[in-house]
Task: inverse folding
């Protein structure tokens, strides 16, 4: 490393994920005359010195798209080094706004779906963002140890029918052969659906059964130096050290727990919403709030900066997989 090299300036940027009920979001094409003209980006821009991120978001979306933001919550923050500058991109999910977006400054606008982007090229910093947007807002965790296998598989079938898209098999009481059989049964239920099936802790079994990935325990996360070679990888986190390690390994998402009291960890001190928000402020990976939550907790969780909620016991009543 060369000494006395000045740090490139850090440019604070806010960007909007304008989401429609079908989960499609708006991308905009940068106009001629700007750096990276012709590249597609999330609407937004630089935060001025006198502004909060939310104020900058409202101003930019009014200037660029002619809309008024009604409800927006922080999502993920990514630092990206371009040759000319380093940008810190604070992404906000804009759930409600007034007006129909029109291209007041951009060349073109396009509503896109995370798994099916039809415009290109994208700004280089945005690729991991699209991967994060593929994750649904509800993450289900199996609970056959409490409910029994039959009931558990029935609840999973129902949740899949309602559109569940992310599921973790977490059955610590089963022997290896029982776990294999149970995982095969879950996999069969998920076949032909949109759901990704991950398994807790067992990287070898995830590979052997061709599951979509693995969910690492916190201890396992800290013991690893590289990301497991699976398509999707989540990890359980409870504190800053674990969150930092998940980030450095390039994990896809984390759960943070316990947010509320939960029967599975009765003596664990809970975070509550405020501590959760503080812990994940400025974090770069999507976070599922976990622990004692109900489907109705999705909005409070997202207001605190979480991507979504993870549900174990209350899966059956989930209306919004
Ligand atoms: N708006 C936006 N900017 C992004 C995204 N991804 C990304 O790397 N950036 C970077 O963040 C910076 C935003 O600057 P900008 O030029 O859009 O800012 P601005 O609208 O305030 O324009 P200005 O240059 O006229 O002041 C650029 O370096 C841009 O490349 C994104 O998705 N949306």
Result:
């Amino acid at each position: 490393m060369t000494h006395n090299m000045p740090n490139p300036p850090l440019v604070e940027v806010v960007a909007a994920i304008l989401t429609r009920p079908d989960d499609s979001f708006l991308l905009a094409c940068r106009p001629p005359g700007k750096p990276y003209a012709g590249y597609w980006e999330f609407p937004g821009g630089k935060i001025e010195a006198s502004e909060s991120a939310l104020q900058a978001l409202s101003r930019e979306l009014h200037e660029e798209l002619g809309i008024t933001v009604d409800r927006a919550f922080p999502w993920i923050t990514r630092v990206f080094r371009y040759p000319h500058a380093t940008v810190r991109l604070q992404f906000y999910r804009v759930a409600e706004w007034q007006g129909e977006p029109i291209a007041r400054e951009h060349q073109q606008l396009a509503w896109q779906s995370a798994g099916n982007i039809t415009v290109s090229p994208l700004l280089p910093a945005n690729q991991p963002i699209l991967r994060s947007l593929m994750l649904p807002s509800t993450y289900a965790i199996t609970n056959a140890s409490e409910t029994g296998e039959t009931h558990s598989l029935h609840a999973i079938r129902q949740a899949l029918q309602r559109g569940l898209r992310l599921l973790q098999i977490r059955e610590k009481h089963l022997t290896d052969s029982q776990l294999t059989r149970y995982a095969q049964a879950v996999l069969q239920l998920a076949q032909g659906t949109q759901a990704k099936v991950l398994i807790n802790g067992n990287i070898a079994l995830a590979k052997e059964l061709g599951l979509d990935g693995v969910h690492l325990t916190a201890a396992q996360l800290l013991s690893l130096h590289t990301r497991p070679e699976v398509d999707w990888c989540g990890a359980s986190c409870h504190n800053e050290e674990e969150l930092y390690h998940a980030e450095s390994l390039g994990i896809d998402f984390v759960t943070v727990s316990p947010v509320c009291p939960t029967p599975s960890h009765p003596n664990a001190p809970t975070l509550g919403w405020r501590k959760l928000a503080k812990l994940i402020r400025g974090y770069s990976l999507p976070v599922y709030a976990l622990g004692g939550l109900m489907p109705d907790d999705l909005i409070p969780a997202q207001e605190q900066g979480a991507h979504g909620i993870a549900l174990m016991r209350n899966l059956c009543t989930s209306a919004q997989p």
